[in-house]
Amino acid sequence: MVKMIQVVTEGSWIDVVISSEIPVMVEFWAPGSVPCQMIEAIIDDLAMEYSGKILCCKANTDDSPNIASQYGIGTLPTFLFFKNGEEKESVIGAVPKSTLTATIDKYIDA
Questions:
Q1: Cβ contact 48:101 at 8 Å
Q2: How far apart, in whole angstroms, are the C-alpha atoms of residue 1 and residue 3?
Q3: Residue 87 CA to chain centroid, in angstroms?
Q4: pLDDT tens, 55-82?
Q5: Does residue 97 sit in helix, strand or coil?
Q6: For all residues of the chain together, what is the average pLDDT?
């Protein structure tokens, strides 16, 4: 299966997230985080279901600490939603798929 999730770093953040023409969901995660591992399959599902409607990204907080700090990321996973380059909303923790779906649906064009 092809991964539909784009990895973003401090070097690609502006080009990938801020400049995106479609809404973006960014998961801030870390390799040792059990809650992040628990929801990995959900994020893969969402990326496939919403392909072309949103851009699903992952930012490793160990590799991109400045971005995590800039957005006040303290708990993992944290999901930030961007539209037109602006942060719109955050969802914190290993939440049910329905919570993320409801948030995504607010920002995609029907």
A1: no
A2: 6
A3: 11
A4: 999 999 999 999 999 999 999 999 999 9
A5: helix
A6: 94
Strand partners, 89: 81
Residue 72: CB atoms within 10 Å: 9
Residue 99 burial (C-beta neighbours within 10 Å; 0-12, 13-18, 19+): middle
Burial of 29 (0-12, 13-18, 19+ CB in 10 A): buried
- The first and second tokens of residue 10, run together, are 């401090």
pLDDT value at residue 1: 43
91-94 LR contacts (CB < 8 Å, sep 24+): 93/35, 94/35, 94/36, 94/38, 94/39
Average pLDDT over residues 29-39: 95
